[in-house]
Amino acid sequence: MRRSAILLIVAGFLLITAAWWFLLIAPKNRAITDANDRLAVAMDEEIVLVQSIQRLESIKSNELQYLAAINEVETNIPNEPQLDVFIEDITFLAEQAGVELSGISTAVPVESGTTPGLFEMTVSLSVDGEYFEILGFLFGLEDLERLVKVQSLSLVPQFETVVIEADPGDDTDDPTEEPTTEEVERIRLETLSTEIFAVAYTRSGVTVVTTPPAEGEAPPPEEGATEEGGGG
């Protein structure tokens, strides 16, 4: 009987211990584990938020630089082709470089195949001038506020045809006889005829020319290829 009582007491103690563990300790441990997991997640989120705040503070401190960069991009690549402004810039550049601008032609802007939202407008320029004048024009072309990329060019020397006439002198019986043509000579000039093929960039494919046409000329189309003659 005494042994049975001891066994019952031990069994009761174990049962109470098990109940205490499952009902009190185990839930507390799970709660502590969950709390630690939430704490780790919160700490990770805090790190991300701190980094975001630091980036925002950096952007705020460099706001003027970012605005200047955005303005520069908008100037280099305008929202619209602004063809009339572009032609004015090219004409002024030709005057400054000392070359003769004999023609400008442009094509309808087409969307770039590599950069979405970017349009490329093909430009063809015909200029005449000496070598170093043309070189200065090319440097000025790529130094414009408008982003322009020269793709290719061709240089053709210019020649002048000179007719040398023979004077009949004393060997002719008729002093009224007109001189006869003896030789035609081509003299190479210092000027070069240059064709420049370039690309100007824009963020829209709509081409509108606002420059009024000259008297007696038909107005240029609102869209499509346009041409303007220079002082050639």
Written description of the protein model:
The structure is a single chain. The protein has helices at 2-61, 63-76, 83-97, 131-142; strands at 100-106, 110-111, 119-130, 148-166, 180-202, 226-229. The longest helix has 60 residues, at 2-61. It is rod-shaped, with a radius of gyration of 42 Å. By secondary structure, the protein is an alpha+beta fold. Helix 3 packs antiparallel against helix 4. Strands 1, 2, 3, 4, 5 and 6 form a six-stranded antiparallel beta sheet that branches.
List keywords for this structure.
6 strands; 29% strand; rod-shaped; alpha+beta; six-stranded antiparallel β-sheet; 44% helix; 232 residues
What would you say about this model in short?
By secondary structure, the protein is α+β, with helices and mostly antiparallel strands. Helix content is 44%, strand content 29%.
The largest β sheet comes out as: 6 strands, antiparallel
Coarse morphology: rod-shaped
Number of H/I helices: 4
Radius of gyration over all CA atoms, rounded: 42 Å
End-to-end Cα distance, whole Å, is 131 Å
Approximately what portion of the residues adopt beta-strand conformation?
25-35%
Number of DSSP strands? 6
Poorly predicted tracts of residues = 208-232
What integer is the average pLDDT?
75
**Percentage of helical residues?**
40-55%
Name the helix and strand elements from N-terminus to C-terminus, one letter apiece.
HHHEEEHEEE
By secondary-structure content and strand pairing, the structural class works out as alpha+beta
